[in-house]
Amino acid sequence: MSERSKTHVRGVAALGTALLVLGGAIVHAQTSDRTVWTGVYTSDQAERGKAAYAEQCAACHGPTLAGIDVAPPLTGSAFLNNWNNTSAGDLFERIHTTMPQNNPGSLSGKTVSDIEAYMFQANGFPAGQTALPPSQPMMAGIKILATKPAG
Amino acid sequence: MKGISRRRLLASTASTFVLSGLVGGGRAIGATAPSGTTTPHPDTEWRYYAADQANTRYSPLDQINAANFNDLEVAWTFKTDALGARKEYQFESTPLLIKGRLFTTAGPRRDCIALDAATGELLWMHRLDEGARALNSPRQLSGHGVSYWTDGTKERILYVTTGYQLVSLDAATGQPDPEFGTNGIVDLKRDFDQEIDLVDSDVALHSTPMVVKDVVVVGAAHAAGDVPVTRHTVRGYVRGFDARTGRRKWIFHTIPLKGEYGYDTWLDGDADKATNGGAWAQMSADEELGLVYIPVELPTGDETGMYRRGDALFGESLVAVDIETGRRRWHYQMVHHGLWDRDVPCAPILCDIPHNGRIVKALAQPTKQAYLYVLDRTNGKPIWPIVERKVEKGDVPGEWYSPTQPVPSKPPAYDVQGVAIDDLIDFTPELRAQAVEFVKNYKIGPLFTPPVISKPGRWGTISAPGVQGGTNWPGGSYDPETHVVYVYSKTQPSLMGIVGNADPEVTESPFVHGVAGVTPRKMPLMGAESGGGDFRPPPPPPPRPGQKAGPPPGFLTVQGLPLLKPPYGRITAIDLTKGDIAWQAAHGETPDNIRNHPALKGLKIPRTGRPGNLGPLTTKTLVICGEAGFYTNEYGVRGAMLRAYDKATGMEKGAVYMPAPQSGSPMTYMLKGKQYLVVAIGGGNYSAELVAYRLPGKA
Question: Residue B423 in 3-state DSSP?
């Protein structure tokens, strides 16, 4: 291996380390503080989600997300407590793989994340500047907290 | 058996059942030990959904008791993820236990499986891919489990598929019984006294068939009827089939045909065009009396009834029919012309109780409305008077209102009924004041306050119990030795507003359940033909909610907290020797959002309980029931507890951790000297699982 090659290898290695550090920093910034209280969806997204909800979900979960006889509420204490300390990714996964019940798996990731944004809005979580991403791994770091953390 | 005195016989329903062989379930618990055995802990069985045909969910076992409950360990778990094409999160089964093997349905495709009851090892699996027929089903997922039939030689496991087919399997192998139906299957959409589409029609069933003698009784369930797209769908008739051949023996018309009993309780022949009226709950049976007890739901329209005017039998009634012929022996209607979605949701509990100096063959029916109706099960007459009381009429054009409703004098209601100021949240005076302001925008009143037209400033009636009850499908439990019923219920009100509908494509009904300003949505059609024809245009739609009309409608919360005060979930012990409540216990840990709520900081709040659908198990000394929801414990771990109460006092005696809430009611059995508790769990982000607990030590 030539000297130059070694340098190149070191350079690549250094770049890799830098990326790792940088990546680590990004991941750190995304995971440590991101909760449903920090503005993890946009108002536009929630509007789209509202329309998708009406089309795909309202028949069973009710027009106000309050649930009916055969489907649970998607707002309020019962919903929030059952999902407290899970992640937006967990909720995404559940919706994406099991809903709607008469055609599970038929909703695109984008539609699911829009619907989830609408659910977050309906539960009183604030909108922000970044939309919920359309895939489970990308939102795994967003924590669902039933009550707003102090401070 | 020899030692049982006549006195004890009279005192004990269980013993009576066992000795006379009236109720197969009696056999299933105490009497299944081989005769002459000397082992201190003979194996037991669990042959019916709730232990026996009487639906007691009772076992006299006591190896697991107050002293050792906290020592319970997980014996095995069975994760259902591998069954079906995706995970399931709503596993409502109670497995059966026969000769050391557990039988249940599981997974989103509703496969039928057999497990080794000592290890949880999968023994066989039966899978029916029904394609579009299953996808169109109004009852998805794994359902409540399976049923068992034997003639002493043959043993069969029976279950109803997602697509509404009755399957009979050889219990030993899981192979379909070639002598039953067509290759082991009876298509329940045929021979139904009505022509319905085999793929698209709106009928299915979560409940297990009731096997009684050699008859398999099967009910019917339909899509929810809040915004029914049409009333011309499927009638929820109940049928009895020969357990050996699958041949239909009888049918009972839950919506009577012209000339049949009950037809004239409908105005102007409304029954002719009505549908639904299913029997989706579990049933009970008394072999000696030759009766099956069938809980019936409403015909079309859960909160509106303009197309089913009159008392409209057999809506929200319990009907006793002959096991052999299906003929009605008696019925009792609990709500006349219901407008509150109060389907009779679970099996009545059959109980022989001392009353006025004699033992009465009674039954106790838990309900969504939180009354326990106690009736003589030979004739349907109330044990304690049930009085017709005048009730308020609503304001929905074209609606028919019953002038009276039956109100039991005993036992007292076991959960909040109706909404009064005193029922509102009262953790702090501020929260109470906000709740009082909140309800000014709604109609409140006693039980049977009707749903009203939803408009800004009066969004509808806040109904407690809500559409889910009270008590729902898991039903209660009963101690035959002390004559006490144990039943779980939740305090979770619903908004019952009625809105006009201008779009016959959404629903042919001019008025449906909803909130002003929110356009009614079409409910899943399940292939039904739209009726059309007699659509009546509604009045002009209400104005859009104004800025000053009050808080956004439909969210029954104050600062994110439940509008009504706790407990949100409770277990009630009801002493049937007196018709009184013996004790109540808040069931379920206080939810995270209440423990962490800023408005409640510094307050000491007693355990609030949790709302859900739970069935308790009763043993020799304990009432055992898992929690309905997740909470985050002191270690920061999510989960729920399986709790045990002293059945005499309601004092908690122990609790063990479950990774997810109870989703199916627990059962218990003794196997090779060890008592097991088995419970189905799941929900939220935790997929379905059966968990078996037993005490430490080598099995």
Answer: helix
Residues of B in contact with A54 (CB under 8 A): 519, 521
User: Is A51 an interface residue toward B (CB < 8 Å)?
Assistant: no
* HEC assignment per residue over B190-239: CCCCCCCCCCCCCCECCCCCEEECCEEEECEECCCCCCCCCCCCCECCEE
Length of chain A: 151
The residues that bridge with B332 in the sheet, in sequence order, are B318
**Which letter does DSSP use for residue B669 in this model?**
E
SS3 B682: strand
Share of chain B above pLDDT 70, in %: 90
Both tokens of B620, joined, read 């020799």
Check pLDDT > 90 for residue A18.
no
CB-CB under 8 Å, B591 with A103: no
Side chain identity, residue B18: V
Question: Is the pTM value of this prediction over 0.80?
Answer: yes
> DSSP of B540-605, one letter per residue?
PPPPPPPTTS-SPTT--EETTEESBPSPSEEEEEEETTTTEEEEEEE-SPPPHHHHT-GGGTT---
Q: Could you report the per-residue pLDDT of B217-228, keeping only the tens digit for each?
A: 999 999 887 778
CB contact under 8 A, B591 and A58: no
CA atoms within 13 A on the CB side of B465: 29
CB contact (8 A) between residue B555 and residue A66:
yes
Nearest chain B residue to A86 by CA distance is B685
**Cα–Cα distance for residue pair B432/B362, rounded to 1 Å:** 42
CB count in 10 Å sphere of residue B372 = 26
Of how many residues is chain B composed? 699
DSSP 8-state secondary structure symbol assigned to residue B520: P
Strand B494-500 with B452-453, pairing: parallel
Q: Provide CB contacts within 8 A for B639, sequence distance 6+.
A: B630, B631, B633, B657, B658, B659, B660
Yes or no: say if B78 and B643 are a contact pair by the CB < 8 Å rule: no
Query: What SS3 string covers B472-483?
Result: CCCCCEEECCCC
Q: Which residue has the tokens 């618990």?
A: B29
* 3-state DSSP assignment of residue B381: coil
- Answer for the pair B348, B364: CB distance below 8 angstroms, yes or no: yes
Q: Which residue in B504, B609, B524, B628 sits closest to B567, CA to CA?
A: B609
Distances (CA, A) of B210 to B100, B163, B252, B331, B356: 22, 19, 14, 18, 32
**What gap in Å lies between CA B416 and CA B35, rounded to an integer?**
48
Q: What is the pLDDT of residues B244-283, one digit of tens each?
A: 999 999 999 999 999 999 999 999 999 999 999 999 999 9
Q: What is the pLDDT of residues B297-354, one digit of tens each?
A: 999 989 999 999 999 999 999 999 999 999 999 999 999 999 999 999 999 999 999 9
Query: DSSP for B298-359?
Result: -BS-SS--TTS-BS-TTTTEEEEEETTT--EEEEEESSTT-SS-----SPPEEEEEEETTEE
Q: Where are the alpha helices (DSSP H) in chain A?
A: 3-33, 43-56, 58-61, 76-83, 88-98, 109-122
Q: Which one of B556, B593, B598 has the shortest CB-CB distance to A80?
A: B593
State both tokens at B615. Answer: 């069935």
- Using the beta-carbon criterion (under 8 Å), do A91 and B685 form an inter-chain contact? yes
How far apart CA B562 and CA B438 sit, in angstroms, is 12
What contacts B471, CB < 8 A, 6 or more positions away?
A: B345, B346, B366, B367, B368, B370, B487, B488, B489
Minimum-distance CB partner of B596 among A68, A70, A147: A147
